[in-house]
Specification:
Helix 3 packs across helix 6, helix 6 runs antiparallel to helix 9 and helix 8 packs antiparallel against helix 9. By secondary structure, the chain is an alpha+beta fold. The protein is globular. The strands form three sheets. Strands 1-4-5-8 form a four-stranded mixed β-sheet, covered by helices on one side. A four-stranded antiparallel β-sheet has the order 2-3-7-6, with helices on one face. A two-stranded antiparallel ribbon has the order 9-10. The chain has ten helices and ten strands. Bound molecules: flavin-adenine dinucleotide. Flavin-adenine dinucleotide binds next to strand 1, strand 3 and helix 10.
């Protein structure tokens, strides 16, 4: 058993950290922290992430991608501010999904611009009435000669307002059980225009989360991906690594809260002593440290199981749920260490708290992740037979 990162992994972590410091943080600081970044700023960020292989991590090298292991990708994402990490993984995950289910002609047409980040991509699955149960998708793709005519709405779509192409899950009818027969199509905005509106959210406010409206949107059938009926499988393949990586987004936030709490506890004096000398404050610091350490290790473990080719559905769901929940609590405890200062906008902990809360929902709510864990542990599926 080996708990140390190797020298190459540490180097990748370090170069990603330097990229964030040099190229990303200054852009975040230069813009309002409560407003989605302008597209030009996001394009600059995507370009520096592309240079690090973050836009094509799960596309193999022989296909022009970076071919990174899941753990390496997680180590890199742990260094990114989560509003940016979410945008990058939505883009990169879309590229991975296209790679996994496209023909040579489609790969040649879509992937180079995703890899170089010349065009921004995203995936639209969720709808106003369809969240945890993606098989109920209602957005309709009607066949008309060599096009699909797409009508419907998607909701909470990362990157949609700034994207150039969106991978949309649509229904082409129902099966005998009343579930949608799904098809995935790449909708290119310049060719097949659609409307995307920003949705105001609790946290991750410099990122983009949108509602998307397709009205008689005509999409060439040549943009349909994969085999009929494989939509859920392809989405699940990317969710498997995404989940522990989302856990590491939470670790990033909680580590910042821990660093701030350690400094504050040493500097702040009450009753004539540093508050770090009070045993109850030490308990807070010990609990925060335990949460950050255990969350990080569990996410690394899940990612390494994926890299070893082991069945990772349970550990991946467990890692996201545990890390996001533990890190939310850790940030809240770090706020306690700061007293009233912990609640101030000036200190920035409230932003970490709001950002972490956002992570409980995408790529599996707490309840859905629990049910996946339960299914893997017992062999009995609670929500679908
Ligand atoms: C930051 C963020 C980024 C996102 N990015 C994207 C994106 O890029 N693309 C995309 O398509 N979507 C995206 N989403 C949407 C996300 O995938 C959905 O919000 C999520 O799947 C949950 O769906 P819902 O919000 O409709 O909740 P619902 O599914 O309506 O769930 C409501 C509540 O019911 C619970 N529940 C549902 N079913 C069960 C069950 N069987 N048993 C027990 N409890 C249950 C849920 O856990 C939850 O507590 C994003 C969301 C967020 C917050």
């Amino acid at each position: 058993m080996e708990f140390e990162l190797d020298s190459e992994q540490r180097m990748i972590q370090e170069s990603t950290r330097r990229m964030v410091e040099r190229d990303i943080e200054p852009l975040l600081v230069a813009h309002d922290r409560d407003t989605p970044l302008p597209k030009e700023a996001m394009q600059k960020i995507f370009a520096v992430c592309a240079a690090q292989g973050l836009t094509c991590a799960r596309i193999p090298e022989e296909a022009g991608g970076a071919g990174l292991s899941a753990l390496t990708l997680g180590l890199m994402h742990e260094q990114l501010p989560p509003a940016i990490a979410l945008a990058v993984i939505a883009h990169e995950g879309t590229g991975a999904r296209i790679f996994l289910s496209s023909n040579q002609e489609q790969r040649a047409r879509f992937l180079p611009d995703i890899i170089s980040a010349k065009r921004i991509a995203c995936t639209g699955n969720t709808e106003p009435d369809v969240g945890s149960d993606p098989r109920s998708v209602k957005t309709r793709a009607a066949e008309e000669g060599d096009v699909y005519v797409v009508n419907g709405r998607k909701m909470w779509i990362t990157n949609a307002s700034i994207c150039d192409m969106i991978n949309v899950t649509c229904s082409v009818g129902k099966d005998d059980r009343g579930l949608s027969n799904l098809v995935r199509v790449i909708i290119e905005r310049d060719h097949s225009p659609f409307t995307a509106l920003e949705i105001g959210m609790l946290g991750l406010k410099q990122g983009h989360l949108s509602e998307v409206l397709f009205e008689n949107c005509r999409v060439p059938k040549a943009n349909a991906l994969g085999e009929p009926g494989d939509a859920a499988r392809i989405l699940t393949l990317t969710w498997l690594a995404n989940r522990p990586i989302f856990g590491l987004f939470a670790v990033h936030l909680a580590q910042k809260a821990l660093d701030a709490a350690m400094t504050y506890a040493r500097d702040r004096v009450q009753f004539g002593k540093s508050i770090a000398s009070f045993q109850l404050v030490q308990e807070l610091l010990a609990d925060i440290t335990a949460a950050v350490t255990s969350s990080r290790l569990m996410c690394y473990y899940a990612l390494s199981c994926i890299d070893k080719g082991e069945r990772a559905n349970q550990v991946s769901a467990m890692a996201k749920r545990f890390a996001v929940n533990s890190c939310q609590r850790a940030i809240s405890l770090a706020m306690e260490v700061h007293g009233a200062m912990g609640l101030s906008r000036e200190m920035g902990l409230e932003q970490l708290y709001r950002d972490a809360r956002m992570l409980t929902v995408p790529d599996g709510t707490n309840q859905i992740l629990t049910l996946i864990e339960g299914r893997e542990l017992t062999g009995v599926a609670a929500y679908r037979s």
